[in-house]
Amino acid sequence: MIPQNKSILRKVLYASYQEGESLPGYIRYALAGLVQTGFTVAYLTNRRDLDPSSHAFLDSHHIELFFTDNHGYDFGMWRRYIQYTAKFRREEWERLVLVNDSIVYYQNRFNMIFAKAEDSEAEIFSLTENDEYAYHLQSFFLYLKPKAISVFFKHILKEPEGEDFYDTVKRLEVGTSIAMQNAGIKLEALYHTDKKILFSYPKLISQKAGFVKRKLLESRFTRDEVFHFWKNGEAKALSTDYATLIEREGAIDKDFDKKWLATKNEGFCHLMKKVKILLYRIHWELSKAKARAQHQQRLER
After folding, report:
1. Please, which residues have CB within 8 angstroms of residue 58's CB and are 6 or more apart in sequence?
2. What is the rounded CA–CA span in Å between residue 152 and residue 97?
3. Other Cβ atoms within 10 Å of 253 Cβ, number
4. Whether pTM exceeds 0.85
5. Helical spans, DSSP H, in the chain
6. Cα(177)–Cα(139) distance, integer angstroms
7. How do residues 251-300 score in pLDDT, each as one tens digit?
């Protein structure tokens, strides 16, 4: 059961990098759902002007607004909020939930998810897991109980902020799970997938899990990420129209506006993304041909 005693400090830290003045609909939907859990919610975001509508939304939902530097990704924002909070205050926290805006939640299932976390014997709980680099819980959603909170504070305050994405993933996302395991902390994910998690969203959508990686909606991939799909034989997962799939099979909440699934894949932007993928494909095929030729040369020596 989720603790009901209002004197217990239960915090949600939602980390978000955005460029516009207005909070996107999908973020408002997630924040409103998180507030409904009874936890205190803080919105951590990069410094910029927010429009009156965004301030009114945060105020009406009693969500703390914490502006910070755009550095170190989500872990950098969490770290600075923790540093900002007086040590004796954060030591009172009995639940800490870490969330970021890389996921679009088109179903409000936070009460159910929090209850699952409470029912679990694990001290740290996530929605999904991954085994790249090493086994770890994915950090877009982490539910921590007291023992895990203590280990997390030690880890995040000891480690310098990440200088790039992969450094952050290895030392902080993966590193957090390793630190937990080294401390004898039990980890658990709600969903277990046969394929690597990035390739598993079509199945999660059909299972009505209620969330999706935002970069899949936006087809926003680096060249190495595109190659990762192809190398693993997952071209279909790469080319899937996730917004359409969600509308067809995802059981979207009635009060979630489908427009919030909209991406920038329209007009010239959509064309440029297709051209980029085509160029990546040419590079991919040339690289494979070169590797085959080099292999044949070695065999002929």
Report:
1. 23, 31, 43, 65
2. 11
3. 15
4. yes
5. 25-35, 52-60, 73-84, 87-90, 110-119, 146-158, 165-168, 175-182, 201-206, 214-218, 223-231, 235-239, 242-249, 267-300
6. 9
7. 999 999 999 997 544 543 554 455 555 556 676 566 767 777 776 777 77
Cα 179 from chain centre: 20
For 28-87, the pLDDT digits (tens) are 999 999 999 999 999 999 999 999 999 999 999 999 999 999 999 999 999 999 999 999
The three-class DSSP label of residue 67 is: strand
Pairing of strands 187-189, 64-68: unpaired
With tokens 């004898």, the residue in question is: 184
Are the beta carbons of 7 and 93 closer than 8 angstroms? no
Contact status, residue 190 vs residue 116, Cβ threshold 8 Å: yes
The three-state DSSP-derived secondary structure of 34-54 is: HHCCCCEEEEEEECCCCCHHH
Domains of the chain: 9-189 (3.90.550.10), 220-300 (no CATH)
Tokens in use for 81?
């909020």
**Residue 201 gets which letter from DSSP?**
H
Distance CA 261, CA 137 (A): 25
* Residue 209 near residue 191 (C-beta atoms within 8 A): yes
Q: Is the dihedral of CA 272, 273, 274, 279 positive or negative?
A: positive
Stated length of the chain: 301
Exposure letters 177-191 (e unless 16+ CB within 10 A, then b): bbbbbeeebebbbbe
Judge contact between 96 and 124, C-beta under 8 A: no
Residue 138: alpha-carbon gap to chain centroid: 7
CA dihedral sign of residues 215, 221, 227, 228: negative
Task: Quickly count: other Cβ atoms within 10 Å of residue 67's Cβ.
Answer: 12
